[in-house]
């Protein structure tokens, strides 16, 4: 059986997506929400993260980039390739791309 405290625990994306799509969400709250988001939750889409990585706030950009780099969604490759050309995002984007290369079969 599962721990009763874990049974009804909603996924972080239940809170992240509404915060991320609300223009009134303070950047510090949005950055904190992205920090706890599961990058592989279907509600935390590559499109959403690609939009947030262009935010005005540096913390929101950093957290959305980290979440995008950790995503297992193959659609993350294209924005990561674009971001790898940006000196401010290069390291995290390259790490995300390296994770993708590590997942590929070596036949």
Structure description:
The chain has seven helices and no strands. The protein has 107 residues and is an all-alpha fold. Helix 2 packs antiparallel against helix 3, helix 3 runs parallel beside helix 5 and helix 5 packs parallel to helix 7. The radius of gyration is 15 Å and the shape is flat. The model has no long low-confidence stretch (mean pLDDT 88).
Helices and strands in order, then pairings?
Layout: H1 4-7, H2 13-20, H3 27-36, H4 46-52, H5 58-70, H6 77-83, H7 90-103
Helix pairs in contact: 2-3, 3-5, 4-5, 5-7, 6-7
Give a short overview.
The protein has 107 residues and is mainly alpha-helical. The chain has helices spanning 4-7, 13-20, 27-36, 46-52, 58-70, 77-83, 90-103.
Order of helices and strands: HHHHHHH
Mean pLDDT comes to: 88
Helix content: 55-70%
Distance between the termini: 40 Å
Largest sheet: none
Shape: flat
Tally of helical segments: 7
Low-confidence stretches: none
Class of secondary structure makeup: mainly alpha
Task: Give me the Rg, rounded.
Answer: 15 Å
Q: Beta-strand percentage?
A: under 5%
Number of strands: 0
């Amino acid at each position: 059986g599962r721990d009763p405290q874990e049974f009804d625990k909603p996924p972080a994306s239940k809170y992240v997506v509404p915060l991320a799509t609300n223009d009134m969400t303070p950047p510090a709250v949005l950055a904190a929400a992205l920090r706890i988001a599961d990058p592989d939750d279907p509600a935390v889409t590559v499109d959403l993260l690609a939009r947030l990585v262009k935010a005005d706030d540096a913390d929101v950009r950093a957290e959305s980039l980290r979440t995008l780099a950790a995503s297992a969604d193959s659609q993350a490759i294209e924005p990561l390739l674009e971001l790898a050309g940006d000196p401010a995002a290069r390291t995290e984007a390259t790490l995300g791309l390296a994770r993708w290369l590590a997942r590929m079969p070596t036949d």
